[in-house]
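Supplementary Note 2. Why include the ligand at all?

Several targets in our set were suspected to adopt different conformations when bound, so apo predictions alone were not considered sufficient. For every target with a known small-molecule partner we therefore ran a joint prediction. The input for protoporphyrin IX containing FE is given below.
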Amino acid sequence: MASLYVSEIEAATKGFGILLIFVFILYKFLINKKPSRPDNQLKLPPGPRPWPLVGNLHQLGHLPHQSLAELAKKYGNIVFLRLGSVPTVVISSPAMAKEFLKTHDSVFASRPPVSAAKYLFYDHRDVTFARYGEYWKQMRKLCTMELFTVKRTESFKSVREEEVITMVRSIWQQSEEGIHSVDLRGSLSLLTQNIVCRMFSGRTFSDDELNGGVGFKDMLSEMAAVAGAFVIGDYIRFLEWFDLEGIRRRMRVVQKIFDGFAEKVIDEHINRRREKSEDENRVKDMVDVLLDRAESESQSMEVKISRVHIKAIILDILIAGVETSSTTIEWAMSELLKNPHVLEKAQQEIESLVGRDRFLVEKDVTSCEYLRCIVRETFRLHPPVPLLLPHESMEVCFVDGYYIPPKTMLLVNVWAMGRDENVWADPLQFNPERFMGKTTDVKGQDFELIPFGTGRRGCPGISMGLSIVELALAELIHCFDWSVECELNMDEFFGITVPKKFPLFSRPSWRMSKKYDSIFDIKKSG
Ligand code: HEM
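The joint prediction is reproduced in token form.
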């Protein structure tokens, strides 16, 4: 019995051994040899281990672009994270930007479904937050072919020149009145707000024109604040309905105020058309262009332009155009105050071109090479949208040997790219000379400097943005010398854009040959 038992065990052991060998052979020669994909194809990019539920959200901190730059130092230029339940890839090098925004651009051309898109931007019916598809293509085409063309940008040249001079006058008046330090952030916000409003509606708006007792400026700040706010429910989906931060409620409130405002703008345009009270010489604004399109019987677009589309586009233009430009000019002025030799050199360049007897016009600025290098250097160190806007992948993609699942959010850390010592010599130094005689520009051909993004989702307002920034900066340093009394604080604040944490106050002193009024009269008669 015992020996039988032993032999059964022996037989069983033998059988198990044979089975193991069989499984090994099967694995080695059939299963292991068969796969159609190399081993690394399902390998995710490296990254820190996520925590249950929150994933890597806790690692973002108050300044996510800076925290993500630190993670890139540890894990490399492609990092995989889970933000709550959202798979996320963060890239931080020109080579990676080329892979994602050129080679695989069509896969990553969508936007993730965030609360702002739904509750503020007319449920994705704008351009910026629209998901990739026929609708976005049509709306984007409308922007690039009609609203933001070079010709249209050129048609608003006098708007920009007039508004910049108005800002100069206001600063001059303040200095004449003995105001010690001018609130440059306030002046620049008003400037870009007025330019953008005149571009889309032909006029500016005062604080008492909105319903609900909210000022126009306050409405803009609130819209920017909620559009840029972090909403936990966008990442931990089951929390979506609790509106823990109260942001969704704020979005609804400010959306209603904006909607009333946009309705009024459209009505004004329609009434003017009905009454045929148009001044024939008036430059067409963007709402005119959109109404022309809506009224034209032969709309070649599948999307018929309605009021909602016009309102959504106005909202895009306000959010995308106002803060981006003013934030950039504020950073540029701050760097010039910290680097007086750069300010002096730029002033000399402008002066040798136009003297001190007249204001600048846009044509002058195209000849100011050094000034334009200052703008590029500002975009390198202080891109106003440091992670671009989040993209989302639409299908499985393999990049650099890594597996990127569908519906992965893509963040492009242009802030980290601008400070990468493998790309830039002395990256933390503000040194506009690095761009002199170089072809590197902000349109992203070589992917080193992409503050406007690039590819399908790149900024369509790039020429408008650049012309505002260049002219305003040039005129500010042409007309005034600037000084600050104490060391400038260059800390950042993260929102829909990343401005300085503390607004810039600075002391202007008039450096033109004549008083403001005399120069203004010369300009008018000229
Ligand atoms: C200094 C000025 C500006 C900067 C730095 C800037 C930057 C950007 C960036 C980073 C994006 C996202 C790109 C991406 O996700 O890959 C963007 C998108 C966009 N920008 Fe700008 N922008 C500026 C001015 C403007 C202006 C003046 C307008 C319009 C009047 C404008 C309209 C838009 C629109 C409509 C989009 C969405 C494009 C899409 O999703 O298809 N931007 N911009």
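The first strand starts at residue 78 and ends at 83. Residues 27 and 34 are 9 Å apart (CA to CA). Comparable summaries for the other entries are listed in the accompanying table.
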